[in-house]
Amino acid sequence: MIPTLEWTDQGVRFLDQTKLPLEETYVLATSYQDVATVIRDMIVRGAPAIGVSAAMGMALGIQNSPSTTVAALSKDVDEMAKVLAATRPTAVNLFWAIERIRVLYYQLVDKQPANLSEAEKIERIREEVRAEALRMYDEDIEACKTMGRFGAELLPKEGTVLTHCNAGALATCGYGTALGVIRAAVEAGHKINVLADETRPYLQGARLTAWELLHDGIQTSVLCDNMSGALMRKGRIQAVIVGSDRIAANGDVANKIGTYSVSVLAKEHGIPFYVAAPWSTVDMATKHGDDIPIEERSAYEVTHSNGKQMTPDGCGIENPAFDVTPAKYVTAIITERGVLYPPYDESMRAMEAAVKAE
Ligand code: MRU
Predict the structure, then answer these.
(1) Cα–Cα distance between 338 and 132 in angstroms, integer?
(2) Probe residue for ligand 1, chosen from 4, 95, 165 as the CB with the greatest number of ligand atoms within 8 Å
């Protein structure tokens, strides 16, 4: 399996996604601050991968903290949560993962027997937090595989599927969300040809999606971002599937910039538009997609390509990293808990109730 991120005895090891597809090199994060840098610099990226990375960052920070009392460690934990949460604003998985570890940490603090020394309490907390981060890693892969099983039957038995950005093994702990569905369909015998939008300006489609699908022997061609409409019109695309960074309670979906345009084109041409995302991407506290914070990234990503300046000096630049696809363009949302259909405000509320009842 593609080693996107991995807990090791030395720290958290990341496949450096900024160097793909030409170099397969690794970055070792030995502190939670390193993990924050790895997330901010997009050495690791993709909503589920960012979430688990942050959880591992918290576990690493707790493991390495020089604090000798639980009270001092708690202050460190609050600081770690703050630093990791300030890395990227859109993918809700980041905040979900940090909160899951922080809540567990405080539960563990309350649970420690009074007769233990501070050092013994800290050691027990460290072990349990690390185990939780590793559990989140395993759960993420499991969720991707389950989404794959649910989603595969929605894809054509034979045909071409368009995807945007990278929602694959590289964006998760393994297997992928949207690409996991494609992988599962191929494993089930569907004859699928993938079109990957190049996904300017960061080129997640051209660099990452194409790399990982070819790695698995899945037929893939890269399209420039302005080409899919023409191919849809010619009947060359049978389905679209993408991942998501945050899904609002009404079913509006935030994903990589350009996703919205693809969804409108798909609707115009009567092509199903699917979103695959784990339940940790759902943000029921955000009622409407317009309330999802959209990351604005550096102008340099647009002005330069491979270090070469592409735009005239003094030119204005826009670089929103994500956009919101209104729920009315989404045919179905595939999660590891089942497939959601419109009206999403109802189907999502019902799934939330089921999750809470567990
Ligand atoms: O800026 P990125 O590369 O982190 O954006 C990633 C995406 O938009 C993905 O489509 C999304 O996170 C879903 S990943 C399973």
Answers:
(1) 24
(2) 165
